[in-house]
Amino acid sequence: MHRLEKLGIKLPAVAAPVASYVPAVRVGNQVWTSGQLPFVDGKLPAVGKVGEKITVEKAAEYAQIAVMNALAAVHALVGIEKVTRVLKVTGYVASAEGFINQPAVINGASNIIGEIFGDAGAHARSAVGVAELPLGSPVEVEVVVEIAD
């Protein structure tokens, strides 16, 4: 039984791409995901900038949703049970002028990865503030994982 099942977490369906790309690609023993938005049933739960319209707490929830969408893309490509290590998480935060708490937002993604993968979830990370994200999303998350052959 995968740790997801033990935690009672169900991966969402893979979010449909909104442009010309695929949700994830495998290169050797790694899977790289495209940037994932926090789609829930094909819709964004909110739009706007963090530190203006969106609170840090809500944005962290959206980062968690986005990373679950990334894991769904990994699962659809190779199976989540093949993940041996989470290598890198990159989180983008649509930031209001003067907003500097991007790391707290992307903790929403990192914390759930830690819960799901335990020690294998310890990862390198970037939390980047940007002016705008696709479709007005407050966050976008990418993941790179190592997989077993």
From TrEMBL:
Domain Endoribonuclease L-PSP/chorismate mutase-like intervals: 3-143
CDD domains noted in UniProt: YjgF_YER057c_UK114_like_1
Signal peptide: none
Gene3D superfamilies cross-referenced by the UniProt entry: RutC-like (3.30.1330.40)
SUPFAM superfamilies: YjgF-like
Name recorded for this polypeptide: RidA family protein
Organism this protein belongs to: Corynebacterium canis
